[in-house]
Amino acid sequence: MTARADNDLDRRLTNDGISVLKEVVGRRIPEMANVFQIHSGPMGRIQQTAIIAGEVIAYQGELTVNESLTKLTRGEEIVATLENIDLSGGDIVLVSHESSLCNLLTYLTNEDILMSNSSLTAIDIESWNKGAGKLLWQESPNSREIKRTSAFVDQF
Predict the structure, then answer these.
(1) Which of 38, 72, 99, 116 could staple 93 via S-S, CB 3.0–4.6 A?
(2) CA dist 130 → 103, 122, 137 (Å)
(3) Structural domains of the chain, with CATH
(4) Residue 137 is inside which H or E element, if any?
(5) Tens digit of pLDDT for each residue in 31-80?
(6) Would strands 35-40 and 63-65 be described as parallel, antiparallel, or unpaired?
(7) CB-facing half-sphere around the CA of 153: CA atoms within 13 A
(8) DSSP letter string, 27-89
(9) At what angle do helices 75-82 and 98-109 cross, to 10 degrees?
């Protein structure tokens, strides 16, 4: 759901992608009422996603660009850039590629969770320690079910 561009950093969301994003985030507005920070990866469409999601939930703060929120970044690498955030201030939204967010979810919850484009997954954490997170919910364009890898048949 991204438009073509010469440089992957410059790709933008398509109109369809924007519509799906607004729909998915819009379904979870009540659960996102306490967001006090939004962190985005450096790519154009990732930042665009974060800005649009922030608009949908009426977020009033600044967007923080976090260079670790890129493709295939390991969970512990992302945590190293976030561990100074006071978690008692409210909820934090992280926007990136599904690969790095899946790595982070696995690190924080000790569960293998799949994420598709335009999906949201919420976890409860009181610390950034490995395994300290509790999976709360997942919302995607077609489902509200949490997508665990154990629910998929190994095709190899």
Answers:
(1) 38
(2) 11, 16, 19
(3) 8-151 (3.40.50.1240)
(4) strand 134-139
(5) 999 999 999 999 999 999 999 999 999 999 999 999 999 888 899 999 99
(6) parallel
(7) 1
(8) TTTGGGTTEEEEEE-SSHHHHHHHHHHHHHTT--SPEEE-TT-STT--HHHHHHHHTTS-GGG
(9) 80
| DSSP-based three-state secondary structure for 134 | strand
Q: Are 139 and 28 in contact (CB under 8 A)?
A: yes
Residue that is written with structure tokens 């939204």 in the block: 93
**Cα-based angle 6, 77, 102 (whole degrees, multiple of 5):** 70
Considering the entire predicted model, what is its pTM? 0.85
Distance between CA 120 and CA 95 in Å, rounded? 9
111 and 148 Cβ atoms separated by less than 8 Å: yes
Host H or E run for residue 92: strand 91-95
For range 121-150, the mean pLDDT: 90
How many Cβ atoms from other residues are within 10 Å of residue 37's Cβ? Answer: 18
Q: How far is CA 13 from the centre of its chain?
A: 16
User: Is the model's pLDDT at 26 over the cut of 70?
Assistant: yes
Position of tokens 């729909």? Answer: 23
Match 């967007």 to its residue by tokens: 63
Rounded alpha-carbon distances, angstroms, from residue 15 to 22, 59, 122: 11, 22, 25
